Amino acid sequence: MADRKPSSAEDYKRLRRILLGRDFDELEMLRARLDEPELRSEETSRILPRAVDLSANSSTELRRSMQPVVEEGLRTFGRRDPQGFSDVLFPVIGPAVRKAVASSMQSLIDGLSRTLEQSLSLRSLKWRFDALRTGKSYGEIVLLRSALFRVEQVFLIHRDTGILIEHRTLDPASARDAGLVSSMLTAIRDFVVDSFRVTSGDELETVQFGELSIWIQGGPRALLACAVRGSAPSSLREVMQENLERIHFTHYEALEQFRGDISRFTETRQYLDACMLGRADESIRPSTVRWKPLVAASAILLAAFLYWTWFDSGRWNLFLNRLSSEAGITITSAHRAFWGGQYRVTGLRDPLAADPNAILAGTGLNPANVEQRWDAHLSLDPKFTAERTLEEMERDLSRTALRFGAGRYEMDDEEDLEDAASDIQKLLRFSEKTGHVVRIAVIGSADPVGPPETNRELSRKRAEWVRQRLIQLQVPAAALTEEADVSGTALRRRVTFRAKSDARAGR
Amino acid sequence: MLHFKVCLIGSFGVGKTSLVKRFVSSIYDDRYLTTVGVRVDRRELRAAGHDVTLVLWDLAGEDNFTGLSMKHLRGMSGYILVVDGTRRDSYLAALRLQGEVAAEHPDARFVLLANKSDLREDWEISPIELEGLSGEGWNVHATSAKTGDGVEEAFEQLAGTLVEAALSAAQTA
Question: Which terminal residue of chain B, N or C, has fewer Cβ atoms less than 10 Å from its own Cβ?
Answer without folding.
Answer: C
